[in-house]
């Protein structure tokens, strides 16, 4: 045996005898009574029962990789965020790309939104972008998020996904029509994770310490182009090779064939918000490209697989609230709610000290002595420093680069508010339908994707769903009705 082989120990470092169980042997048989003093066997069995952390309530199945972001254009007119300043500047990143509805072991090639989460380890703290591969979202009243996801997941009684539940939710929460049209379109199943977009979906701000700011939507565009998967191939792969996308990303990076994305923004000045053709604080709308063209910012490259999936990807905690100076939120209530929800999920899923773990640890100097103790503290815990604010024993200085939540001036009344749906909500969905109809085989494919979901639902609900889809375009309803005749 080579002397470079590691010597087996227990977790406390004492020598261990792997594969052996201390026992009172029963003669020459394989029988015996195991001993409570066999700490090694007990440690191995007890740890096994505790080696899972709760999987994410949504976005549980994913691939992940490290990489880098490089600034390619000067956007110093819009932001003074350190990692976006200086052409050629590079920042280390971690990206996790997920499906939404399925569990940790579910198939990759299902029709679903793909989640996109990137962590930038900047010199001013960790910046996370927690995006999706579709440009719009299904809801715009944040309290509906759990409901929407449950309607896409398993039925509470049968424990299987359920088309009636799916359509019952969407028909009665019709603001999701634009996202639904994307979901049932070709992009609902990507060919690979290397060929998807990442969209911020929400409006964010870019700002500078002089108080100036603009509104932006972020777009990550794959340099290798968008590629989608034929639904028949997807169904086959979902059974034959359920980890198809995860394997593909890992193998491609391992080969050195690194996927890249162009990082772009759409920009709107605050004074143009009122006259904009869309509500920029409503995440069910896209901004028209003609009016708000894409401006390139940089390039994102994934070039390093994690050396341990559990440590680096399962324990990775991404949150829209992780923002550095120069980047800010907007008044999109869904974004506001998300800024609470993610760190809340992390404290539950990974533990209150999640930010001390390798994938979540900032690379700049952190001094947060009012966040200390708790399970698994490994950062020195601020030694004897005061654990209360405004100490004169160890005064704390304040950075001039404080992140302010919003630049706008607000003046309004507190109300209990829910959005309502108007014909305007169907306009962008209709435009998308028209685009799909112009693509070769696009219309047939969309119908083919929707039809099976309408077969096994109650007739009254089916009629209402057809009316709902008819609000996009009467031909869509007519074609679906026609298609259902053969079913
Ligand atoms: C009210 C709306 C939303 C709520 C409350 C919400 C909440 C959550 C929660 C609790 C998780 C699991 C986090 C974890 O356990 O680490 C999650 C994951 C995720 N969400 Fe949302 N979400 C919302 C909307 C959105 C939107 C609009 C997007 C995209 C623009 C999005 C993208 C993602 C992604 C990419 C992940 C996976 C992050 C990862 O890879 O760890 N979510 N969301």
From TrEMBL:
InterPro entries: Catalase (IPR018028), Catalase_AS (IPR024708), Catalase_clade1/3 (IPR024711), Catalase_core (IPR011614), Catalase_haem_BS (IPR002226), Catalase_sf (IPR020835). Catalyzes the degradation of hydrogen peroxide (H(2)O(2)) generated by peroxisomal oxidases to water and oxygen, thereby protecting cells from the toxic effects of hydrogen peroxide. Pathway: Alkaloid biosynthesis. Heme binds at residue 342. Pfam families: Catalase (PF00199). It comes from Trichoderma guizhouense. PROSITE patterns: CATALASE_1, CATALASE_2, CATALASE_3. This is Catalase. GO terms for biological process: alkaloid metabolic process; hydrogen peroxide catabolic process; response to hydrogen peroxide. GO terms for molecular function: catalase activity; heme binding; metal ion binding. Residues 1-15 have a biased composition (Polar residues). It comes from the Eukaryota. SUPFAM superfamilies: Heme-dependent catalase-like.
């Amino acid at each position: 045996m080579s002397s470079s082989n590691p010597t087996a120990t227990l977790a406390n470092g004492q020598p261990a005898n792997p594969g052996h169980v201390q026992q009172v042997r029963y003669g020459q048989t394989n029988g015996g009574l195991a001993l409570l003093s066999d700490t090694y066997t007990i440690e191995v069995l007890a740890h096994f029962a505790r080696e899972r952390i709760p999987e994410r309530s949504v976005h549980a199945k994913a691939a992940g990789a490290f990489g880098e972001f490089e600034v390619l254009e000067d956007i110093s007119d819009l932001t003074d965020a350190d990692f976006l300043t200086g052409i050629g500047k590079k920042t280390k990143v971690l990206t996790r790309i997920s499906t939404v509805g399925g569990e940790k072991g579910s198939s990759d090639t299902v029709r679903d939104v793909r989640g996109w989460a990137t962590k930038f380890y900047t010199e001013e703290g960790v910046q996370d972008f927690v995006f999706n591969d579709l440009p719009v979202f299904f809801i715009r009243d944040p309290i509906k998020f759990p409901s929407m996801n449950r309607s896409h997941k398993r039925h509470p009684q049968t424990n299987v996904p359920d088309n009636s539940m799916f359509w019952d939710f969407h028909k009665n929460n019709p603001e999701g029509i634009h996202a639904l049209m994307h979901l049932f379109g070709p992009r609902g199943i990507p060919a690979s994770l290397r060929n998807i977009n990442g969209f911020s979906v929400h409006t964010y701000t870019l700002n500078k310490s002089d108080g100036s700011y603009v509104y932006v939507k972020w777009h990550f565009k794959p340099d290798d182009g968008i590629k989608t998967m034929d639904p028949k191939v997807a169904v086959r792969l979902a059974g034959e090779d359920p980890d198809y996308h995860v394997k593909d990303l890992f193998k491609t990076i391992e080969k050195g064939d690194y996927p890249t994305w162009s990082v772009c923004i759409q920009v709107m000045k605050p004074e143009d918000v009122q006259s904009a053709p869309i509500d920029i604080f409503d995440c069910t709308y896209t901004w028209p490209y003609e009016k708000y063209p894409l401006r390139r910012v940089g390039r994102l490259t994934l070039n390093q697989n994690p050396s341990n999936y559990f440590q680096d990807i399962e324990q990775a905690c991404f949150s829209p609230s992780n923002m550095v100076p120069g980047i800010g939120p907007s008044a999109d209530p869904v974004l506001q709610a998300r800024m609470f929800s993610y760190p809340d999920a992390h404290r539950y899923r990974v533990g209150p000290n999640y930010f001390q773990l390798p994938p979540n640890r900032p690379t700049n100097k952190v001094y947060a002595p009012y966040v200390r103790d708790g399970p698994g503290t490994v950062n020195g815990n601020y030694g004897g420093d005061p654990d209360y604010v405004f100490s004169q024993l160890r005064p704390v200085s304040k950075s001039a680069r404080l992140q302010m939540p919003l630049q706008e001036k607000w003046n309004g009344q507190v109300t209990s508010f829910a959005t309502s749906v108007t014909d305007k909500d169907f306009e962008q969905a209709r435009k998308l339908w028209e685009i799909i109809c112009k693509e070769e085989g696009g219309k047939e494919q969309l119908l083919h994707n929707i039809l099976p979901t309408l077969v096994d639902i109650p007739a009254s609900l089916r009629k209402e769903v057809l009316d709902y889809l008819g609000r996009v375009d009467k031909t869509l309803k007519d074609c679906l009705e026609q298609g259902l005749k053969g079913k």
